[in-house]
Amino acid sequence: MVERIETQRRKAYVIRLFTAQLIVTVVGMLMVYPIARMPGVFSVVTGALVALLPHAFFIQRMGILHSKRTSRSAVHLFRAEGGKFGLTVALFSAVFVVVPPSNPAFFFSAYVAIVLMHGLTPLFMRRHRTLY
């Protein structure tokens, strides 16, 4: 029973984080469109994807959503974090080599905004009060 509640709590956190990141991405796209049109919107989307894909990889590797038990081993944590870092570096390299953003300021602003959402998401979580 306790595991089920913990799993539901983790899923709710990840869903709220993803929703907040999606909202930030859409707001960024709407703010950039009048200034730079579609090339600016594309820069915002690529910046958001460079932040979101490694985080999704980390969630998958740690088994946060699908496992009954999350991996608590430090080795699993470091492997997942190392993979996330490697994927981030690879995505940055790929973006700047294959499809350079038309406006790097929009690209990095979207990336930083998405990454900073991790720190703000606990504000969106409901507080469970227990009576003692």
Which characteristics define this entry?
single chain; 0% strand; 78% helix; 132 residues; mainly alpha; 3 helices
How would you portray this structure in words?
With 132 residues, the chain is an all-alpha fold. Helix content is 78%, strand content 0%. The chain has three helices and no strands. Helix 1 crosses helix 2. The radius of gyration is 17 Å and the shape is flat. 18% of the residues are buried. The mean pLDDT is 85.
The counted number of beta strands is 0
Cα Rg: 17 Å
Order of helices and strands: HHH
Unreliable segments (pLDDT under 50, ≥5 consecutive)? none
Percent helix, as a range, is: over 70%
Shape descriptor: flat
The proportion of strand residues reads under 5%
Label the structural class. Answer: mainly alpha
* Separate helix tally: 3
Mean of residue pLDDT values:
85
Termini gap: 20 Å
Largest sheet at a glance? none
How would you summarize the topology of this molecule?
Layout: H1 2-62, H2 74-98, H3 104-120
Helix pairs in contact: 1-2, 1-3
How would you sum up this structure in a few lines?
By secondary structure, the protein is mostly helical. The protein has helices at residues 2-62, 74-98, 104-120.
